[in-house]
Automatic annotation (TrEMBL):
This is Glutamine synthetase III. InterPro entries: Gln-synt_C, Gln_synt_N, Gln_synth/guanido_kin_cat_dom, Gln_synth_cat_dom, Gln_synth_gly_rich_site, GS_Type-3, GSIII_N. It holds the Pfam family GSIII_N. PROSITE patterns: GLNA_ATP, GS_BETA_GRASP, GS_CATALYTIC. Residues 193-617 form the GS catalytic domain. Belongs to the glutamine synthetase family. It comes from Neptuniibacter pectenicola. It comes from the Bacteria.
Length: 722
């Protein structure tokens, strides 16, 4: 109650940052807890290492004998780091991770404890997976789920207070082989993209094209709140956001937090946090304050998408655990505080390989530019055709608070190219960019046009999907999300588009056009169909919302309830099926799981709203009301008539709040809906509206009820006291 709120403030003001050892040099700690190729080279025979390296770099299968050797070396290394347990770590269809720990220990006939870790234990695990969401993919009598080692993502040691554990990144599938996780589709989407990209590159005359992979650099925003406050806020603890709270007098109006000095306690936290990331081979690169008070960002250097996705997941776990150690609650929620900037996760994405480099880098020579234009064009086509898919993969109850609100990317998917590149594509469409062929050597003039000066200032912060010099940045992804879904969507739409490009290009070349003319003709067709998705203006403006929908034919998809049904669109089902990324059954299971999660998270919040309003806000209002009325009675007994308008307003507001609580209780009791889509719509429209209305009354009470009886830590306290 109020006493704990006020004592929290005292506890925090007298607290000291915890002691952390002086940072060790990077060379001493970098990847020290990772069984990476360097460690394998030390531990394995030449042949075993060669086989393993090939598997890591190309995904080729590993033979059983080598797996045994690798397993033994891995066990020895892990035990030398103090590990007694190992666990496959996998990535179920939630945004979390799952693990099942097993000991290395076995006993022999003499009753001695020995340790054992075979290739088959490394390769395959069998967690009791029936409690993970599977979207009807596993019927109960066939509830087996398997985890299988993903050798392309390195194993590592996780140190927790109860010991060290060898963690083995894994895929998770049903016994019939259906993907139950977020890693299998990511690996498949990479393979599909690789296949289609190779078609295009070989038509472009490229020889010995190496395996293409997608890259991901994810910027993670988060809030830190002192745990003394968090512990008196059930909403923060259970829903990750404040369901109540009046706006503070000082919010972020002055933007003085952005890139400002990082408070000492937070610096100590960050150092500890980043040291752990370095040990795990996660290349933490930048950190800074964010726009809102109490908000921060960390951005590791980009890595191969599959590894980056595992690292991102690990990073989220480590933020939370380390924050706890430092007396903070880390909030990864997209909108922990109403009226204050939310948190996103910008997913920077590109595709490339060791022979052609980054294909989204315009490069310096015309040939590179041609490849670049094709790949960039393919992305534009993909976003145009599959915008609703991109919207669906970022659709969660929590991200709905951010998307479409005035500070985050709009819920309309468009592409920002920057003035220079937009002009190149528009010129191509207009037939203005003429190739000139002289003496067999092409001079497109493109190399000049596209010699980019990568200006980090040249940003459009209002675009959900922006080209940023040598990559695309998907800015609408939610801060609490796994990056896998967005990466799968981007890789898959690109695979489809590159396939389309390859078909067109082949036809153009067959018709006798030279290479440059063929490329430009393909791109002209592409632009004729898809240029509507390119937009360089203010994505927040009302004007864009009108033009996008009415003139450009783009979709404005405000809520998850509107977005998730895209998984049922025939074109999207066909996209996933023909690229081999998700079968129709696998895709349907995702629709089922994500819509369940949406409904569940809104119901959890609604119950919390009811509970907090009834058991803490209403009682505070009643206490204050009785104080006020007894003061009025006392005054009257000495012949003074006090103004009773405040008491009346407290009474009527508390009463109105409880009326909405009653309506909300009735609403969440409803469970009969013809379809899951109807149920989602009901959550988005009815339940959310009632929750907001309870909150409006409660927040008004907060501005009237005496400070010393108000039970919940206030925005100004949570945001500014550290
Ligand atoms: P900003 O906040 O200006 O967007 P940051 O430096 O915070 O920039 O983050 C940019 C992210 O993009 C980093 O994770 C960076 O490693 C990543 N990145 C840079 N180049 C690429 C690329 N070619 N592919 C994928 N990610 C990239
Ligand atoms: Mg960015």
């Amino acid at each position: 109650g109020n006493a704990s709120r006020l004592s929290s403030i005292r506890a925090i003001s007298s607290g000291k940052p915890i002691d952390v050892a002086m940072p060790k040099p990077l060379s001493k700690i970098w990847a020290s807890d990772v069984f990476n190729l360097a460690k394998m080279e030390e531990a394995l025979s030449k042949n075993a290492f060669k086989a393993m390296k090939k598997t890591v770099q190309t995904g080729s299968p590993l033979d059983a004998a080598t797996a045994d050797v690798v397993a033994a070396a891995m066990k020895d290394w892990a035990m030398s780091k103090g590990a007694k347990f190992f666990s496959h770590i996998f990535y179920p269809m939630t945004n979390a991770t799952a693990e099942k720990h097993d000991g290395f220990i076995v006993t022999n006939a003499e009753g001695n404890a020995i340790t054992e870790f075979t290739g088959s234990l490394l390769i395959k695990g069998e967690p009791d997976g029936s409690s993970f969401p599977n979207g009807s993919l596993r019927i109960t009598n066939a509830a087996r789920g398997y985890t299988a080692w993903d050798p392309t993502s390195p194993a590592y040691i996780m140190n927790t207070p109860n010991g060290a554990t060898l963690m083995i990144p894994s895929v998770f599938m049903s016994w019939t082989g259906e993907a139950l996780d977020k890693k299998i589709p990511l690996l498949r989407s990479n393979a599909a993209m690789d296949k289609a990209a190779k078609k295009v590159l070989s038509l472009m005359g490229e020889k010995n094209v190496a395996t293409l992979n997608s890259s991901c650099g994810a910027e993670q925003e988060y809030f830190l709140v002192d745990e003394n406050f968090a512990n008196s806020r059930p909403d923060l603890l259970l829903a990750g956001r404040t369901l109540f709270g009046a706006s503070p007098a000082k919010g972020q109006q002055f933007d003085d937090h952005y890139f400002g000095a990082i408070p000492e306690r937070v610096q100590v936290f960050m150092q500890d946090f980043e040291d752990q990331l370095f040990r795990l081979g996660i290349p933490a690169k930048t950190h800074h304050n964010e726009v809102a008070p109490g908000q921060f960002e960390i951005a590791p250097y980009f890595e191969a998408a599959n590894v980056a996705a595992d690292h991102q997941q690990l990073l989220m776990t480590i933020i939370k655990n380390t924050a706890k150690k430092h007396g903070f609650l880390a909030l990864l929620h997209e909108k922990p505080f109403a009226g204050i900037n939310g948190s996103g996760k910008h997913v920077n994405w590109s595709v490339g390989n060791s022979t052609q480099g980054n294909l989204l880098d315009p490069g310096h020579t015309p040939e590179e530019n041609l490849n670049f234009l094709l790949f960039c064009g393919a992305v534009i086509r993909g976003v145009h055709l599959f915008g609703p898919l991109l919207r669906a993969v970022i659709a969660t109850a929590s991200n709905d608070h951010r998307l479409g609100a005035n500070e985050a990317p709009p819920a309309i998917l468009s592409v920002y190219l920057g003035d220079q590149l937009e002009k190149v594509f528009k010129d191509i469409q207009a037939g203005d960019l003429q190739p000139s062929v002289c003496g067999g050597e092409m001079d497109l003039g493109l190399s000049q046009i596209l010699s980019f000066t990568r200006d980090p200032g040249d940003r459009n912060r209002t675009s959900p999907f922006a080209f940023t010099g040598n990559r695309f940045e998907f800015r609408a992804v939610g801060s609490s999300q796994s990056v896998s879904g967005p990466l799968v969507a981007m890789n898959t739409m690109l695979a489809d588009s590159l396939d389309w490009v390859a078909g067109k290009l082949e036809a153009a070349l067959d018709s006798g056009l030279d290479q440059a003319s063929a490329v430009l003709s393909v791109l002209k067709d592409l632009m004729d169909e898809h240029s509507n998705v390119i937009f360089g203006g203010d994505g927040y403006s009302d004007e864009w919302h009108k033009i996008a929908v009415e003139e450009r034919g783009l979709k404005n998809i405000p809520t998850t309830a509107d977005a998730l049904p895209a998984f049922q669109d025939p074109e999207i089902i066909a996209l996933f099926e023909k690229t081999g990324v998700l079968s129709p059954v696998e895709l349907a299971s995702r629709y089922e799981v994500y819509s369940e999660q949406y409904i569940l998270s809104i119901e959890v919040e609604a119950k919390l709203v009811i509970d907090m309003a009834t058991t803490s806000i209403y009682p505070a209002a009643a206490t204050y009301l009785s104080e006020l009325t007894s003061a009025i009675a006392s005054a009257s007994s000495v012949g003074v008539s006090l103004d009773n308008s405040l008491a009346q307003k407290v009474a009527t507001t508390a009463d109105a709040m409880m009326a909405d609580v009653t309506a909300l209780s009735a609403a969440i009791a409803q469970h009969d809906f013809p379809t899951v889509e109807d149920h989602m719509k009901f959550c988005a429209n009815e339940i959310r509206t009632l929750m907001d209305s309870v909150r409006t009354h409660a927040d008004l009470l907060e501005t009237m009820v005496a400070d010393n009886v108000w039970p919940l830590p206030k925005y100004s306290e949570m945001l500014f006291i550290k």
